[in-house]
Design brief:
It is a single chain. The protein is α+β, with helices and mostly antiparallel strands and 214 residues long. Helices cover 19% and strands 34% of the residues. The protein has a single domain, classed as Alpha-Beta Complex (Nucleoside Triphosphate Pyrophosphohydrolase), CATH 3.90.79. The protein has four helices and twelve strands, in the order H-E-E-E-E-E-H-E-E-E-E-H-E-E-E-H. Strands 1, 2, 3, 4, 5, 6, 7, 8 and 9 form a nine-stranded mixed sheet that branches. A three-stranded antiparallel sheet has the order 10-11-12.
């Protein structure tokens, strides 16, 4: 599907997304860290912190690719994990405003380089975040620079690889309280994409291709 002419592909993807005007929290539909183990989901998740990430689709000649980062080893949480650019929303800030601001702060991506397409399914983490994925198209060339305080590396992964269900692995780990929890993961070359990032990408696949949760 990512071999369609760019205008057609943009329109096709955008037609499967929510318009920007639908802010985080205005829809009951969401995905979460508990998608594969719904029995472990808290009955009352408590107050959630609003956050947003940018699913930046770079329009390369070979097809779309997604900008991903490896978090800095000096961070206190999620050290070294693969992530989409993003972070907490400031008071009164829209999800797309937060995603673009964080992308500029983390990897030097100028907001003007991003053509926003819409919002994917909100994602709730077990650590208390309500993340709105903001999808946007980026036309090369782009010159990205990692903020060393937050990002150890920047790389791109083919969109077709991430949207192929054959690459959606299921893994499990034991939590500190002894529960065994399952999660999605995608292994691209030597990169292990898992947790909320893999869950958000899986939710985007489901939204685009109409697949049911496995």
């Amino acid at each position: 599907m990512d071999r369609l002419p760019n205008p057609d592909l943009r329109d096709w993807i955008a037609s499967h997304l929510d318009p920007l005007e639908i802010a985080a929290g205005e829809t009951e539909s969401h995905r979460s860290d508990f998608d594969l183990d719904p029995a472990h989901a808290p009955a009352q998740p408590g107050e959630l912190t609003a956050a947003a990430v940018l699913v930046g689709l770079v329009e390369r000649e070979a097809g779309l690719s997604v900008i991903l980062t490896r978090r800095a080893d000096t961070l206190r949480r999620h050290t070294g994990q693969i992530a989409l650019p993003g972070g907490r929303c400031d008071d009164g800030e829209t999800p797309w405003g937060a995603a673009l601001r964080e992308a500029e702060e983390e990897i030097g991506l100028e907001p003007a380089r991003v053509s926003l397409a819409g919002l994917s399914t909100p994602y709730r983490t077990g650590t208390g975040f309500h993340i709105t994925p903001v999808v946007g198209f980026i036309v090369p060339p782009i010159d990205l620079t990692a903020n060393p305080d937050e990002v150890a590396d920047i790389f791109e992964t083919p969109f077709g690889f991430l949207m192929d269900p054959a690459n959606h692995e299921q893994h499990s780990r034991k939590t500190p309280d002894g529960q065994r929890r399952r999660f999605y993961a995608m292994t691209w070359e030597d990169r292990f994409i898992w947790g909320a990032t893999a869950g958000i990408l899986r939710a985007l696949y489901d939204r685009l291709y109409g697949a049911a949760v496995a």
